[in-house]
Specification:
501 residues, mainly alpha, two-stranded antiparallel sheet
Length: 501
């Protein structure tokens, strides 16, 4: 089942590339929509049959490169299944939004189908080399999305910066994987086998260097401070659909790597360097929020809030490794909050980036001060953007509140000072979103000169449906989160038990 879910988009991509150019632009997008919908339906089936008592399920293991200890090994547990579901839902939303795309549509659709397979493949991978293959392929796919469908000449420079930064990070990740392989007896890249054998226990400096390599590779992808500088230009110059996938799925490849690889495979080193990880998370929270506050570009502002939100996740997983002053329940709560935050950020920030695309389509600029009184012209756009902004800053009723509450509660016991500092990020985030909403939507109506004389149109159905759907799921999680937490919590308890061993 997992292999079908993973490779269905790639199969459809191959068919579209081989099929004669007889389909219209919208037909290609509709094929993508149907594919994404089928994939989501299959994931719902997997979710319905998932055993919530924990453990890796739906496993498939096939010999791939046996002489090197590499296998095609896939499966899901409570840490990965929510991200698999998020991937299918977000790609479906982006597919509906892309009905408005008119530039080289077949290539555009095929690239996103390729990225959907890559995202799903990484989240189900249970072999380090398989994980690395999908990790690297995501860089290639997003490079072409940014360079080919981004805004103007700057897009190519932003795509190149994105590629170089994240590719160098992936090389560090590969070095760490090789270090794990060499320490294992027998040599293997299998994540399940490496987790049970703990090959680097008591290896001191060697284990620390392996964690450093893996941590740097994942930190670049996440990204955390100081590895974040590729993110704002990549987001600003990418098309709205590309930004939604970059923020909602590709950034989670870094944070997911921490909970799938770094924590369970290097538990001793993770405990030893937990304070360093906590500090990096807290700095990313505050720095990301402060720099976002200083932005005059709406899309760039949202990009920096991603640094802020990813910082919460890094803070939580660092606190989960701090045994002093905490108990097992607090550490498990921190990890549960981190995974919930991954899902929440994908839904809410994905919606915000799609809405930023609507803004650019109308005014051909992201500059906040270029707009004023938009609510009078576009009440639906103003209302949905305000809901997304409040959801992003973590008000009760949305998934962000559930995630951040768990992160702060779980982290406070062992990392009180860092947690208190990180809480200020919520205040700063509130300030930056309120300032942007006030400037763009309230006051005397004023529109950029780039808008035609006929005025600006409100949100269309193609634009409203995917954004409202993403925010509706965030609302459901915020109001009734039990269905999601029941899946995540058993896996969180298992993970924190491995770290504490």
């Amino acid at each position: 089942m997992l292999s079908v879910i993973t490779f269905l988009p790639l199969l459809v991509c191959a068919v579209l590339l081989l099929w004669p150019r007889t389909l219209g632009d919208r037909a290609y997008v509709w094929v993508w929509i149907v594919t994404a919908a089928v994939d989501l339906a299959l994931v719902v089936t997997v979710w319905a049959g998932f055993d919530r008592t924990g453990g890796v399920q739906y496993q498939q293991r096939v010999r791939w490169i046996p002489s090197a200890g590499v296998s095609y090994h896939v499966g899901v547990d409570g840490l990965s299944l929510p991200l698999v579901a998020l991937t299918c839902l977000l790609f479906l939303a982006v597919a509906v939004y892309s009905l408005k795309e008119r530039r080289r549509v077949r290539s555009y659709v095929c690239l996103f189908l390729f990225l959907q397979t890559v995202g799903l493949g990484l989240f189900v991978a249970l072999d380090l080399i398989l994980f690395f293959v999908f990790f690297d392929l995501s860089i290639v796919g997003m490079f072409f999305v940014i360079a080919g469908w981004g805004h103007g000449e700057r897009a190519r420079a932003a795509a190149l910066k994105f590629f170089l930064y994240t590719f160098i990070g992936s090389l560090a990740l590969l070095l760490g994987f090789i270090g794990l392989y060499l320490a294992a007896e027998p040599h293997t890249f299998d994540i399940v086998d490496l987790t049970s054998s703990n090959p680097l226990a008591g290896r001191g400096l060697y284990a620390g260097l392996v964690l450093l390599a893996i941590g740097v590779g994942l930190a670049v992808k996440t990204p955390t401070v100081p590895f974040h500088t590729w993110l704002p230009p990549a987001h600003t110059d990418a098309p709205a659909a590309g930004s939604a996938i970059l923020a909602g799925i590709l950034l989670k490849m870094g944070t997911y790597g921490f909970v799938r690889i770094a924590m369970p495979l290097l538990p001793g080193s993770w405990r030893h360097y937990a304070l360093v990880i906590v500090v990096v998370g807290a700095v990313s929270v505050v720095y990301g929020a402060l720099v976002a506050l200083a932005q005059t570009d709406f899309k760039r502002m949202i990009a920096y809030t991603s640094v802020n939100h990813m910082g919460y996740i890094v803070l939580a997983v660092g606190a989960a490794g701090s045994l002093a002053g905490s108990d097992a329940q607090a550490r498990s709560l921190a990890v549960t909050g981190a995974v919930t935050q991954m899902v929440s950020h994908g839904l809410i920030t994905g919606a915000l980036f799609l809405l930023s695309g609507v803004l650019y389509d109308r005014g051909r600029t992201y500059v906040i001060d270029a707009y004023s009184g938009l609510a009078a012209h576009t009440p639906r756009f103003a209302g949905i953007t305000a809901v997304a902004a409040f959801a992003s800053l973590g008000i009760p009723g949305f998934s962000g509140f559930i995630a951040e509450f768990q992160i702060f509660t779980g982290s406070l016991a062992s990392q009180a000072i860092a947690t208190a500092i990180a809480v200020t990020g919520i205040l700063i985030t509130a300030a930056l979103f309120l300032r942007a909403l006030r400037t763009m939507f309230l006051g005397v109506p004023r529109l950029p000169q780039t808008i035609p004389t006929g005025g600006v149109s409100d949100l269309s159905g193609i634009e409203a449906v995917p954004t409202v759907a993403l925010l509706a799921v965030a609302l459901v999680i915020g109001v009734a989160p039990r269905w999601l937490l029941d899946v995540i919590e058993p896996a969180s308890r298992t993970l924190t038990g491995l770290v504490a061993r």
